[in-house]
Amino acid sequence: MISLLLAFAVGSLFACGAYMIMRRGQIKLILGLGLLSHGVNLLLFGSGRLAEGRPPIFLDKDSYAETIAWSLPADPLPQALILTAIVISFGITAFVIVLVNRRHTITATDYVHGEFVPLLKEGDPFDFSEPSEIDQYDWLAYEVDEVYDSDEPLSGMPPRPPSEHDESAAMEEDNYQWP
Amino acid sequence: MPELYLRLLNRILTPVLLLLAIYLLLRGHNLPGGGFIAGLMAAAAFQLQILSRGHDRVRSAIGPYLNSGIGLGLAVAICAGVVGLFEGTFFKGLWFKLNLPLLGYLELGTPVIFDLGVFLVVVSVATSFLLGLSRVSESAVIIGEGSVSPDLTDDPAFDPMETAGETSREVES
Amino acid sequence: MAVSANLLAAPVAAPLLIAALILLLARWGGRRLIRHQIALTALALCFNFAVALLIFQATAGQGERLVLQMGAWSAPYGITVYGDGLSATLLLLTALVALAVYPFAVATIDYHRARMGFHPLYLFLLMGVNGAFLSGDLFNLYVFFEVLLMASFVLLTIGAQPAQTNSGIRYVVLNLLASTVFLVAAGIAYGTLGTLNMAQIAERLPLASPAVRTLFAGLLLVGFGSKAAIFPLFFWLPASYHTPPPAVTALFGGLLTKVGVYTLFRSFTLFFPELLISWQPTLLTIAGATMLVGALGALAQPGIRRVLSFHIISHVGFMLMGLAVALSGNKLAIGFGLGAAVLYLCHHMIIKTALIMAGGAVELHMGSDRLASIGGLVTRHPFLAFLFFMAAISLAGVPPFSGFVSKLSLLQITLDTRHWLVSGVSIFASLLTMLNMMRLWRESFWGDYKRPSRVPTRILQSSLRQRLMLTPIAVLVLLSLGLGILGGPAFRLSMRVAQQALDRQAYIDAVSPAATFSTKPPSHFVPTTATVPTFLTENAADLARSPFVPSP
What we know:
The complex is a heterotrimer of chains A (179), B (173) and C (552). Chain A has 5 helices and no strands. By secondary structure, chain A is mainly alpha-helical. The radius of gyration of chain A is 26 Å and the shape is elongated. By secondary structure, chain B is mostly helical. Chain B has one domain (4-172). Chain B has 7 helices and 2 strands. In chain B, strands 1-2 form a two-stranded antiparallel ribbon. Chain B is flat and about 55 Å long. In chain B, 45% of the residues are buried. Chain C is an all-alpha fold. Chain C has 2 domains: 1-256, no CATH class; 279-485, no CATH class. Chain C is 71% helix and 1% strand. Chain C has a two-stranded antiparallel sheet. Chains B and C meet through α4 and α7 of B and α1, α5 and α6 of C.
């Protein structure tokens, strides 16, 4: 019975996660990824035997044999796996949040896809139309500065996108803010 | 300025949290606990500081040491593995006992050193992430009020090294 | 020379340790500190290359299998690190690619990105890739996958240009879904077989029910296949590979999809070799579709790096074709198909990296990689044009280069096993590759010199920078030439690697000295009637049918 419940929980978490990922908002995307990782964690939890009232860790070495005879211990390995999976999904969620936030500050929109966001053309593999003005902000606008130890300013620098200017000036003066 | 009770709570809770972190760190090698949990606990103490004193003060106090903390933790963890080579296998645990007067025996070994490395990495990563998020939320508030400040929006609240630290921690746990 | 198994820890530990030192010492400021970072990273890369050579010499050269049980915990309980010929070959090529791309990266990565931690991230990526190749444990493989993915996420988006963040989100989400599928496979393996050790899974899997086997194989095919960018799952690759700096694209193109290909090779030959026979039509269909879609997609692309990233997909199709006929032999040996696939993998990793670096050099000189707006570079940079041409015809498979040998051996085994359709498709895809390479060369090097007007002059006149960019490309092209000229010895070596990888029982014996494994599966494990893999007998029949084998 409890296994059936677990199976339903895993299935519905996967379904909700897949649905959320396929929606347009980026926050929903993050939530969907979280739901999916929870689904996997539950599945890993179910891959050990489901047992009630059996601790995986015994403190008392002397009574270990008796305890084993009384009931088998729970399998601690799935819990270790879940812990690792949680840590990994924590890190990735953190990264995705920061990425989405960065993208939000650039494009000022929450939508993952849509024709009214011209920036998105750049990432579309099947878009062969002519480059728009926004392509100036492609990575090629970055500076290839001279060899690292020369401190003199470069001539013929490309006009940098305004968003980067202040920050790099701050870095040159070495008063860059810590995270 | 934060609330009075938060500042008061901070004074009481921060030492307790840090002590609890050290306790969890030291008992972790064969009891529930360990470097990861202890690191999160210590990061919770730092988050309390951020909430009660503001992120600027915390950043100016510990910000420059966070990246070094990640590196130090990783190096310590790897070195704990290298020590095992003296017994023939990488990451083999070596133990020795210290006799402390009045307190009894203290078992020390390479797993404890490894846990210490994990602790350092987790504290540094989690704190730098919390600091970054506090800055993000502040800039979001300013955007919401309609006075977009170029300094804040252009500032990359995006430090890739935070996530590099995440990468390394996954190996250890 | 006997090599200690502890050496297997070095490709993971050394880059991590050096990256940690860089993090520890660098307080992210000052150009001098970045020079120290570069020196430390180069040291780690050289050390990694030396270690990879040692491991390769011991495993592929002398036929050993190195097994390191972490912390001296024996096999099913501890984490197993396993190195044989296949892993060592990929380890060596990874070290080579990382070492070759690094001078290019030093020359072209700007101060901003270097300061944001490009160099330690390079080492983290190398560590993740090495760990994935050496892992002998399914969950450990997952962890290393995540490590290399995380490093690649940050390398892809470092600098945070709008195009990079857009492509970064797609890349992150699709790769996370693939990792999720793989993790589900690992959970199912633990739930049904009671183990995560790959040798023990291989031992118990023939006893499991066919449903479990099929499910496990399907999940692994989807998970690893989408890392390897096979046909219906490749969309993350062309969406993202053209956005980061060219050095990062060269590194990704050389390493990332190959991890997926390696895990496909490893899991199919170790876990379910019988599926290589019964799923052969499916695998060949996927391979053909991958080749065709990659080559046709490349034909439609407007920029150099987009063309090259579609060609990565096309070439993964060739490797998958080699995997599908992996167990088939011809008159030379059983396992000829896998040997050809391994040789193709080597050729691809070397020449694709060189080509993407050459394309990146064009892009940096011209300020754009859109073929419509550039041209005539041969008058200004004849050596670069020469290198690009050599790399391009090697990729297309023109004789003195390695592309010819590897494609010829793959084609030979496919024709021997009478898969006419897929061999026809592969010939067609090769022709399309040739066409594409000629198109790239003609559009970017031939004709009148022109460059997009709105992009200002690039600052790449420093001769040191030029040499740093061109030398690794030249070295890789020479390697490809050498691999082509010494085709016979190279193929014999890759045959030996393939046969070592196909020997399942030796893998199981190497990881578990019989005493440590209890063959008794867990209590909830319901064995069905044991099905003996019949691939060898079928293979013999296949062999007898082959028109190339003289009938007895």
